[in-house]
Amino acid sequence: MPTAAQSGVTSKKALLITLALILLGAGLAYPRVARRLGRYQAARHASAAVAQVAPRLHDGDLIFQTSQSAQSRAIQLATKSEYSHCGILFRRGAEWRVFEAVQPVSETSLTKWVARGKEGQFVVKRLRDAATVLTPAALQRLKKAGEQYQGKNYDLYFGWSDERIYCSELLWKMYKTATGREIGQLQTLREFDLSHPAVQAKLRERYGKQIPLDEKVISPVRMLESAELVTVR
């Protein structure tokens, strides 16, 4: 028979093991709980922001955000801008949707799009003379210009062909096709700041030693800062 002292030691060990298991379980569960809480808070913030801005939106508005994708930081460093992703807004029934070049080119609800960006921040821009240029017929042409890219793969290599396409390229080509307007000045890859190690690492990952420095590129910030656009939000 164990003595009272031995029983006490055994009970303490059992208690410590139980506490350790509880703490271990809590430690393993915390990241999942934190992620769920973060998504919930982001969704609530996005819903409130969209409800506030929705009455001011027009079909064809352009929307910009800081993406949380793996390549976002490299884009920000190379273009010297916090904005690394963009899309175009269209109203579908009672809901605002964002047509965008992701993988693949598709559309998503504005609320989900906002929640996906860093800290739920976004900027909305509009063609400066949209009231006269974006007639119903022009908007139909704009939508049709986008439809040809629906389902295409995202262009990780930022090429200018239509085989694959990236976010700002999609918007630029849609507006060029539908209205003849060029929103943002085209650049070549060599015009960006490619000196940061994070940018160089991404270039090596994508291109190896054959970096296409003379490839035409349109960046989100070039469109964002274009004189062709005015700020809505």
From TrEMBL:
Superkingdom field: Bacteria
Residue ranges crossing the lipid bilayer per the database entry: none
Protein name per Swiss-Prot or TrEMBL: Permuted papain-like amidase YaeF/Yiix C92 family enzyme
Naturally occurring in which organism (per UniProt): Hymenobacter chitinivorans DSM 11115
Coiled coil segments of this chain: none
InterPro entries reported for this sequence: Papain-like_cys_pep_sf, Peptidase_C92
